[in-house]
Each structure stands twice: as C-alpha cells, then as structure tokens.
Amino acid sequence: MSPDLGSLLDRERFAGAVFDASLDRTTAVVAAMLALDAVWWLLLYNGDVPMPGMMWLMKQGVPMAAPGAMELGVFHVGTLDAVVGYVSMWGVMMWAMMYPAMTRFTREYAASHRGSDADAALALASFLTGYLLVWALSAVVPLALHAALPGGIYGFTESHTTLALGGALVLTGLYQLSPFKQSLLRTCCHEVERHADGIARAFEEGADHGLRCVLVCFGPFFVLMPFFGEMNFFWMVALTAVVTMERLPSWGREIAVSTGLVSLVAGLAVWLLGPDLPVTFTMAM
Description:
Blueprint: H1 3-14, H2 25-45, H3 54-60, H4 69-77, H5 80-111, H6 117-137, H7 140-148, H8 152-159, H9 161-177, H10 179-188, H11 199-216, H12 218-228, H13 233-245, H14 252-273
C-alpha cells in the first residue's frame, strides 16, 4: 500500500468511518433530484402515464415512438380529458429530461437559502412545483404545431419526410446558434444569490425559471423532438444529454454552438442528399 493511500485511510478511520455518508442539505437535494428523476423515467418506460388514443393508434399501425403519434391520438379522441392526459404525459416526459440539467441549480438554490433546512425544503418544493407546472403547460406548443400542419405532425412528416426532418434540424441548428439562445443560456442557471424565499415567492421564481428553461430548450425539445418522435427513447436520452451539458458552467456555450453546427449541417445534408428517411425510427421504446 502506498504511503499516500495509507495516510488517507488512517485519516478516514480516525474521523470515525471509512466512508462519508453524511446527509447535509445539498447532498439531500441532489439525492432527491436523482431519485425523482429515476421515478419519472420509470413511469415513462413502463407506460404508466396517460396515452390518449393509444388503442386507436395501435389499430392504425402507428408506433407510439413515431413523430406526432401522441398528438395524433389526442386529436383523434378530441376530448378535454384527452388533452389533460396529454399534458400530464408531456409534463412527466419533460421533468424526466430536465431534472439532470436542473440538479446543479436546485443544489445551489437550497445552499443559498438563509432559512432553516425545513424552510429551504419548503421553498425548494414550491420552486419546483412552479417550474414543473410551466413545463407541463408547455404541451400546448406541440399540440398547436400539430393543429397548424396539414395532416398533423405525423401526416406531414410521412408525406414530406425529407422536408420535415431536414427543416427541423436546420431550424434547431439556427436556434442553437442564435444570440437569443446564447443570451438565455448565460443567465438560465447562473449562480443563485442569497435568498429567504417563502412558499409564494419560491413558486413565482420557479415559474419564471421554468419559462426561461423552456426558451433555452426550445430548439431541441419543441422543434426537433416532435419530428423525431417524443416517445422515442433514443432521442429522449440524447436530447437530455445535450440540454444537461449545455448548463455546464465551463462548457455550456461550446456544447450549444457545437450541437447547433452539427444540427445545421445534418439538416442541409438531408435536404441536399435526400437520403432514405423513414417516418419512424427503429430505436424506440
């Protein structure tokens, strides 16, 4: 055993334990965020979320992971309950994809709270409630897109596959490279100032932060993902990695610019080369 390793073990034994399992405020927040994120992903993977029109889609031979499949099912059912179910499904999906990116911010939020641990926990819970509500309500964006396109997202992508997929890639790339996106990214998860937010104020802050996060992620989540299939787990994991890495303090801008360039070049290649692009993808749930 090397002297350095031996000294380290001696210090740990002297401190009372070989392993550090202390659960302070910030550690508790990170653990809770990771545990909740696992719950959201399990709900999605097991299909334990509302999926309006699912039986009809199966009869029509439309895979759940196909572009616009979920919106197609909602519009087929055409009831308020179907819309509420879709909003719930979309919310769980967005929470699963955003929790990794939000873990650092929520840790800083709790660490900067001037109140007791209980006060900080209540404020953070209220903050996340406002944040998650905004993400759930952002479901109106893909629903509106489906309503605006001839044949909906699924029908339009099936009829104009090269145009739709290439266009989604190009628009996402341009958005990633835009000064608007870069400005939002610089301030989205900046360092949290010392605060003593109560429940009402924390909810307001969470809703405001949620709106900024929606705008930061608008290209990948609201332009690209609908045309590549919301319930396609390959793209869900890939885009989760992108929006998480974008928020790394030292790498954020480089990741956003790099993904923007890759998306832009890929979209132009789709348009110019016209490769065989099926409306559905094999890497599905």
